[in-house]
Specification:
Elements lengths: L8 E6 L3 H10 L5 E7 L3 E3 L4 H5 L9 E3 H4 L6 E5 L2 E5 L4 E4 L2 E5 L2 E4 L3 E3 L17 H20 L3 H7 L1 E5 L3 H17 L13 E5 L11 H13 L2 E4 L6 E3 L2 E4 L2 E4 L2 E4 L3 E3 L16 E2 L5 E2 L2 E6 L4 E2 L1 E2 L2 E2 L4 H19 L14 E6 L2 E6 L2 E4 L1 H14 L3 H17 L17
Parallel strand pairs: 1-2, 1-9, 2-5, 9-21, 11-12, 11-17, 12-13, 19-22
Antiparallel strand pairs: 3-4, 6-7, 7-8, 10-18, 14-15, 15-16, 20-21, 23-24, 25-26, 26-27
Helix pairs in contact: 1-8, 4-5
């Protein structure tokens, strides 16, 4: 006799990112389970291409898909839009703002991470991070508006400030942003403006560490730095930002004036992990067991950027491949537990890492194999199109990139005011 819905094993997934969505897809194939996915937003976001939205290369809809549409084919899966504010481990309930709590038999926490300003949260107003579509469109607004204002500015010093763009943090996101902004000024926008000299545009990439792309080999890091400098990006390494304001940044006693500052310097996991009352690592990630569950609560799994899982004596990085593999593995462990089979330990299959610098320029590292230049860039294109959600998005992104490659144009150059009210 089939189980009723009330008797079915209930799995609650918090977060519709790479980990949560892949867990839901695996669990959704098992009709004996009932799955509820909760997310504060209604869409899954392909974060590796978020910088393309921020630099007018792609539109938001081309890298995001409604979660309901993605999971529509799984009849045992419900999607709930809401803000999870806490978890009661003892009573096995998820607390949702403005809604009754959700009871669960198994819980998957995959809430991701936010930007860290290292205790200076007031800096966010002057230097937005890049984790959401809202942040990406705001960065796009600021970058494009700076060019518009520079076009009509007669004061040379003010024009110089408007045409100076600072990116703080030289990981993959920072490098990709700096390269894209430099390309915009030199190849895309200079045709459309009459009073802007592209050679006067300054893009400054600031890194506190000794080199950019610290997770890559020193050789690839040097190659990426050379490629960025050819694009006109100025790289400041071993330079720690001590203040961010409306007129730029401060590095110790030295000030850099700029109208636009973008933050890509650090991340911190979702604060939901702190409410669990379980061991955390020094940056606030939940320390998980070999099967991705938390100690003392085998029914609770923590994944992706929110989890600290040690492999070869070091924590796995916050990358999309890590989250995807963990989401699938946790889901399979839940299925095995339900049918009385032993769980498997998680083993990460390292698929390497990629970072694009600009048109025809990228770096690739896979174990000891490393490559840069045009072939690495083609690999970057293929990988990102392959992992996009939905056939339509893959086609649109491919066509957009092909058009941009041959024309040097960017099709999403819209400046949208945050004030929605009509103005006469």
């Amino acid at each position: 006799m089939a189980k009723s819905e009330q008797d079915s094993t209930h799995v609650v997934i918090v977060g519709g990112g790479f980990a949560g969505l892949n867990a839901a897809k695996v669990l959704g194939k098992n009709s004996s389970l009932r799955i509820t996915l909760v997310d504060r937003r209604n869409h899954h976001l392909f974060q590796p291409l978020l910088y393309q939205v921020a630099t007018a290369g792609l539109s938001p809809a081309e890298i995001a898909s409604p979660i309901r549409s993605v999971l529509a084919g799984y009849k045992n899966t419900e999607v709930f839009m809401g803000e999870v504010t806490g978890v009661d481990l003892k009573s096995r309930k998820v607390v949702i703002e403005g809604s009754p709590p959700l009871s669960y038999d198994y819980l998957v926490l995959a809430c991701g991470a936010n930007h860290s300003y290292f205790g200076h949260e007031d800096w966010e107003n002057f230097a937005p991070g890049l984790k959401t579509l809202e942040q990406a469109t705001e960065i796009r607004r600021r970058v494009l508006l700076a060019f518009e204002q520079a076009e009509k500015e007669s004061n040379p010093e003010k024009k110089k400030e408007l045409l100076t763009f600072i990116v703080v943090g030289a990981g993959p996101t920072g490098v990709e942003l700096a390269g894209a902004i430099s390309e915009i000024s030199r190849y895309s926008l200079e045709r459309d403006f009459r009073n802007i000299d592209p050679s006067r545009t300054r893009v400054i990439l600031i890194e506190a560490g000794p080199r950019i792309l610290a997770s890559f080999s020193p050789e690839l890091s040097k190659r990426a730095a050379r490629d960025l400098e050819k694009l006109g990006v100025q790289i400041w390494t071993s330079s720690r930002v001590t203040h961010v304001g409306s007129d730029g940044v401060q590095l110790g006693n030295e000030g850099l004036r700029a109208a636009t500052v973008v933050w890509a310097a650090g991340v911190q996991p979702s604060t939901l992990g702190k409410s669990l009352g379980v061991p955390l690592d020094r940056v606030g990630r939940v320390i998980v067991q070999k099967d991705l569950s938390i100690a003392g609560h085998p029914e609770v799994f923590v994944l992706g950027d929110q989890a600290c899982f040690e492999s070869e004596e070091k924590a796995l990085p916050g990358l999309a491949p890590v989250a995807i593999q963990q989401g699938r593995h946790a889901a399979l462990n839940i299925v095995k537990t339900v049918v009385g089979k032993p769980r498997d330990d998680f083993k990460y299959l390292d698929k390497g890492q990629l970072a694009t610098i600009g048109r025809k320029l990228a770096v690739l590292q896979f174990g000891k194999f490393q490559m840069g230049g045009f072939l690495a860039w083609l690999t970057w294109l293929f990988v990102h199109i392959f992992y996009l959600i939905g056939f339509k998005n893959r086609v649109f992104v491919f066509l957009q990139w092909t058009w941009s490659y041959f024309t040097f144009r960017r099709g999403a150059r819209l400046i949208m005011d945050k004030d929605w009210r009509h103005k006469d």
